[in-house]
């Protein structure tokens, strides 16, 4: 009887441990805190773009995942693309910038 209780307790503990580990974020999925941080970074980058009259903020898309910011969309020159990258790098929380902007 004691062995059955011990076995049942062990199985229950293992099941709980597996359920909890399934809730942990993976490398391709982020938790709520990470999502909020990325949303704040995206908002700050877009705000900087709107405040910079040399950039056409509405033509540049900004996406952030774990501090890595991806810029896409269209700009009129390579200099404008480089400027957008530099503005993005100065935003707090940005770990890296991926430039996928196209020159039109």
TrEMBL record:
Localization in the cell: Periplasm
Top-level taxonomic group: Bacteria
Position of the signal peptide: 1-24
A Gene Ontology term for the protein's cellular component: periplasmic space
Keywords: Periplasm, Repeat, Signal
Database matches in Pfam families: BON
InterPro entries: BON_dom, Lipoprotein_DolP, Transpt-assoc_nodulatn_dom_bac
Residue span(s) of domain BON: 37-104
Database matches in SMART domains: BON
PANTHER family assigned to the protein according to its UniProt record, in alphabetical order: BON DOMAIN-CONTAINING PROTEIN
Stated name of the protein: Osmotically-inducible protein Y
Organism name: Pantoea alhagi
């Amino acid at each position: 009887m004691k062995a059955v209780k011990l076995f049942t307790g062990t199985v229950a503990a293992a099941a709980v441990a597996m359920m909890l580990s399934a809730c942990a974020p993976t490398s391709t999925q982020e938790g709520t805190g990470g999502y909020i941080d990325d949303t704040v970074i995206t908002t700050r980058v877009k705000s900087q773009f709107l405040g910079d009259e040399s950039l056409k903020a509405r033509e540049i898309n900004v996406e952030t995942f774990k501090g890595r910011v991806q810029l896409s969309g269209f700009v009129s020159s390579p200099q404008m693309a480089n400027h957008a990258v530099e503005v993005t790098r100065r935003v707090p929380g940005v770990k890296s910038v991926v430039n996928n902007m196209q020159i039109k």
